[in-house]
Structures are given as C-alpha cells and as structure tokens.
Automatic annotation (TrEMBL), chain A:
Residues 1-17 have a biased composition (Basic and acidic residues). Residues 1-22, 241-269 are annotated as: Disordered. The gene is LOC111286332. This is BRISC and BRCA1-A complex member 1. GO terms for cellular component: BRISC complex; cytoplasm.
TrEMBL record, chain B:
Its main location: cytoplasm. It is found in: Cytoplasm; Nucleus. Belongs to the BABAM2 family. It comes from the Eukaryota. This is BRISC and BRCA1-A complex member 2.
C-alpha cells in the first residue's frame, strides 16, 4: 500500500501507483474567475531512447506505440476543448531536437509528426534537459508576443538515467508537465531517483503549476488516463495534490457497494 | 513588446505612447534613417485608430540629432491637413498653436512627449475631417450633422467619396434616401462581454432623424448589454455548481462562460464531458457531448457521442439542482456511451 504524498511533494519520496481517482479533495470551493486565459502553444517532447521500445503489458505494443496513441488522443481532446491551441513536436535522446518545429492546430499535421517518431537503437546514455528548456524558453518568448502561453510536455521512458539540467533560478517562462513510464523498481534500476529528478526539474522551471504522473504498470489505459489529466489548462489548475479528477459518474447509492472496478490500488513494490 | 535597436530616448517615448494611448495603437515598418547602422533605429509607422479604421502616420526621428522633435508624415489623401499655423495665418489659433508649442518646446528626455504630440495631432485631424464633411453638399447630411454634433466623441471621415460618421458606440452611416443603413461595431472590450450579433436594433420610423433615433438606440443597447452581463453571471454560477459533482473542469471559458469541459470516469473508462451553453441559457438547456479519452477510430478520430440536448430540464431550477439532474442523466448516458465505444473497439 503506497503512502500518501507529503504536502506539496507530489509523492516525491514515495511514488504513487494508484489507479483510480486521487483521494485528496478539490482543495476548497471552485470558482471561475473572470480573468482571461491564453491559448496554448504546446511542445510535446518524446524520449526516444531505446527504452521507449520496451513492451507494454499488451503484447506486441511498445511504449512508443502507446505514446503515439496517447499523443493523438491528447491533441484531439485538446482541440475539441479549444480549437485555437497549437502543437509542435520534439524528441529527447542525449539532448533535445525538433521533430516538427512549426506550431499548428491541424490534427493532420500532428498525425504526420507522430508517424515520424522513431526510437534510437542504442542507449543514449544521458538525458540533458537544458537544451530542451532552451528550446522551450525561446519559443515561449514568441508565444508570449502573440498573447499565448507555452507548455512543454515531456514523456520520459528511462528507468536508470536521471535527467539533468542547468537553468537560472528565476527563469520560469513556460509550464512543464511530465509523464514518466518506467520499469518496476528493482536492484538494477532507480525509477524513484529518476522521478525525484523530474519533480525537481518541473518545480524549477515551471511558470504555472506543472503536473507529473508516473506509471510502472505497462497498461496503455493508465497512460491515456494520466495524459487526459494533463489536458487541464495551466492557468486554471489547482495544486497537483488537490486534484480530484476524473470524478466517477455513478449513482450515489452505488458508492458504498463497490460493484464496479472503480478503484484499484496496486502497491508499487 | 520589446523595441530592441532604438536609442533609449526614442524607445522610452514609444513605450509610453503605446501604454497610454486610449486605444490600441500599432507600430510597423521600423527602420533606420541613417545609411550606417550605428545610430540605431529611428523611424517607424504608427497605425492610429480613427473612425473604426486606422490612419497611418510615419514618425521620423533622427538618431544623430536626438534633441530635435520627430517629423510626422501624414497620408497621401491628407495633403490639405496642415496642423501647424502658417506664417501670418490667423484663427484656428488654439489648436494649431498647441501643436506648435509641443514641437518648439520639445524635451527628448521626457517620455510623455510623443504621446502628447500624437494626441494633439489626432484632435486636429478630427477637426480637419469635420470641416471636409461639412463641405459635402448634401442637405440630409448637413441636417443630421447639425443635430447630432453636440454629442461627444463624434469622429468623421471622408474617404474616396463616401462619408462616415462615427459615435463612440460605433455606427457606420451611409447616405440613402430613407432610413440610413445602420451597422453596429463594437470595440474589442465590448466584444468580449457581449456578442454584437445578438443585438436587436429598434426599428426606424419614417421621417425619423438620427437625433431622434439615437437615444432610442442607446437606451435599447444599454438594456441589452445589462441583460447579457447578468446572463453571463448565471452561466458562471452554473459552471461553478457543476464542479462539486464533476470535479474541477479541465478548461472553462472565464469571460463568456459559454463552455466548460470536465474529465469523468465510468469504471476504468475515462472520458471528457463537454458542456455548451448558448446565450439563451437557462431558457435553453446546455448541449452536452461525451468524448472518449481512450478510443480512437482507425481513421484517427476519437470516439464522440452525438450532441445531447434531450434530457430533463427546467430553467426554474436553481443551479445546483440543474447540476444534479445533469449528473444523474450522464450517469446513465455514460454507460451507453461506454458500450458504444467498446463495441466497435475493445478498450486497451
């Protein structure tokens, strides 16, 4: 049974591996303040290290296959919420490089970019996030000039390579979200340490509240679920520890009688 | 907005102008007047809002003579626009001498100067255009202008033969035999609160003139704007009432409050619930649409429900009742939707 995350620490000292809603409530009554929000420019950066080719629990499907599906679902969902959000694509191996640099709100363009995603065959060795942040910061200035905000979503796949970064303390020009897919913890890997490093990076660079999710399950639907939670607009977010979505739609009477497979809690160990 | 490349005194004046001009002023065609680039950028074009359009004026500083005021070049159609008093000229004293004073007393270190100059020149430009409109030989136009000229904020413009008379609320007026063609245009601020497409114009009665019609129009507009604002508030409270049941929305329109999207689950099936409220809410119930976060068709499109508009509803319920009834409806509907998604494609 996983322990509850420490306050404000997003489960940093112990990874959460809960499938089902987060148990902490909404953190106070929700109000919709009449302040304008900006349309988003979103860079989706996929870790294409060889570890992205690890198989998911579903036979014949690699992490990268599921990631591609998740991205298409994400882009479609985001555009159905607001057709003015835009997307660009990058990859991370040793450092970052562009896959598709021009921001576009066209789904076909995203489909094309996703199709072009392919993994490196050899391990990248290290993961330098500095180049990725530089790229995002540069784009963020352009986005800001158009009254947009920039978000960077990093999908990371390595279980033993802690990413590193060097970044000025007060430069928070974009919001960073992370989705971390990893192997089950064992003697030969350190996904917890990697997770902690990702949390550090997120808290260091993120302009608005960034969200991080992780999964060692290997289930595509867990990945889709967490990616859906990243749909939330950075300027309308609550602290991650207060997240209360997705809410289960079920009859009030059924809540105590747990007929549905609503909440699984699987220990990460 | 960064103005890299300008000497500091120009940059300061330009920044001040943009931040303090009463409307949105744009800058383009930034250039350097000097052949060698060492002086920096010192000329640009201003697009100044006027009469629901823009006038383009070139502003020419000289980076090598920073103490001198800039020259202004007006548009080609405005050859007769002379904002400075001619030698020996009389009358029009006040306006023109104000401009002359700003220029002769130019302080390049004062960031407010450029704004003062542009505002003065724009006032003079309005007066110049008013004179031009006054010269148009049209009885109807003369009559209308005389009766409404006492109102504030009238801007007029003659461009290639057609006349426009503009109120602060924004109307385009073209000279026709009977009722004028009225077109309402709103500022960008108003547009964010109120859709001009929803406005009902009071009817123009035969023999009416602008001075009679405009008060009716203003009263009617004010009523409609107030009503629209109160309807926004109702929609806002409705979205807030959904949150205890549906969780914090992924995204909700904070200004118009016309739409909100929530993330919900039915078992391990996770989906989006879109809520779309028309301007007729709560008389008209919200349109709902469900979208799977897990299923994608072979063509690459996510599975969506049809637009759901038939479900129990009463505009007389309070917002929390509305939220509860929609919740109950969606509990059932999401089961149908889940079945529909899984039938064509098994869940991952």
């Amino acid at each position: 049974m996983s322990s509850m995350p420490k306050e404000g620490h997003r489960g940093k000292t112990k990874m959460e591996d809960i499938e089902g809603d987060a148990s902490v409530g909404g953190g106070g009554r929700y109000t919709l303040k009449p302040t304008r929000i900006s349309n988003e420019d979103i860079i989706i950066c996929v870790d294409v290290d060889a570890e992205s080719l690890v198989e998911m629990k579903t036979a014949g499907i690699t992490r990268l296959d599921s990631i591609k599906q998740a991205i298409l679902l994400f882009v479609n969902s985001k555009l159905s919420i607001n057709p003015d959000h835009r997307f660009a694509f990058a990859t991370l191996s040793k450092s970052a490089s562009w896959l598709r640099k021009e921001f576009s709100s066209d789904v076909e363009s995203a489909i094309g970019a996703v199709r072009a995603l392919s993994a490196t065959t050899v391990s990248s060795g290290q993961a330098d996030l500095t180049s990725l942040f530089r790229l995002a910061a540069y784009e963020a200035k352009k986005s800001r000039a158009q009254n947009r905000i920039l978000r960077l979503i990093l999908i990371y796949c390595r279980s033993s390579v802690r990413p590193h970064h060097q970044w000025p303390v007060n430069q928070k020009l974009f919001t960073l979200d992370v989705m971390y897919l990893h192997d089950k913890p064992g003697p030969d890997n350190c996904p917890q340490a990697v997770y902690d490093a990702l949390v550090d990076a997120l808290e260091h660079v993120s302009e608005y509240e960034g969200y991080i999710h992780e999964s060692g399950h290997g289930l595509p639907r867990t990945l889709f679920r967490f990616m859906s939670m990243l749909l939330s607009h950075p300027q309308q977010r609550c602290p991650q520890d207060d997240c209360d979505i997705p809410k289960p739609l079920m009859k009030k009477s059924a809540e105590s009688a747990n007929g549905e497979d609503n909440v699984h809690v699987s220990p990460s160990q | 907005m960064a103005f890299d490349g300008f000497p500091p005194f120009i940059s300061a004046q330009l920044h001040y102008l943009i931040n303090h001009f009463p409307d949105k002023i744009k800058v383009e065609q930034v250039l350097s007047g000097g052949k060698s680039y060492t002086g920096g950028l010192d000329r640009f074009t201003l697009l100044i809002p006027y009469c629901l359009d823009h006038i383009k004026w070139d502003v020419i500083y000289n980076a090598e003579f920073p103490l001198a005021p800039p020259d202004i070049i007006f548009g080609r159609e405005d050859e007769d626009f002379h904002p400075l008093p001619m030698a020996g000229g009389e009358g029009e004293g006040d306006l023109k001498s104000r401009t002359k004073n700003i220029l002769s007393d130019w302080k390049n270190k004062d960031p407010t100067r450029l704004l003062a100059l542009i505002l003065e020149l724009r006032d003079q430009y309005m007066s110049y255009q008013r004179d031009r409109v006054g010269e148009v030989d049209d009885d109807r136009l003369k009559f209308e202008i005389n009766t409404i000229c006492s109102r504030e904020g009238i801007e007029m413009h003659i461009s290639s033969g057609s006349e426009k008379i503009i109120y602060p609320v924004g109307r385009k007026y073209a000279s026709t035999p009977s009722a004028p063609r009225l077109k309402l245009m709103s500022t960008s601020e108003l547009r964010a609160l109120f859709s001009i497409d929803d406005v009902k114009l009071p009817s123009w009665l035969d023999g009416m003139c602008m001075a009679e019609y405009l008060p009716h129009l203003e009263e009617s507009l004010e009523k409609q704007v107030l009503e629209a604002v109160s309807l926004i508030d109702i929609r806002r409270r409705f979205i807030e009432a959904l949150a205890p049941l549906f969780g914090r929305p992924l995204e909700a329109d904070p200004v118009f409050c016309r739409k909100a999207t929530f993330l919900a689950s039915s078992g391990s099936f996770v989906f989006l619930a879109h809520f779309l409220m028309s301007t007729q809410f709560p008389k008209q119930q919200p349109t709902l649409m469900l979208q799977s976060s897990q299923h994608i068709s072979p063509q690459g499109f996510p599975k969506k429900s049809p637009f759901l508009t038939e479900y129990p509803w009463s505009p007389r319920w309070d917002v929390s009742q509305m939220a509860e009834r929609i919740f109950d409806f969606l509990v059932e509907e999401s089961l149908n939707f889940k079945r529909f998604c899984n039938e064509s494609q098994p869940q991952h």
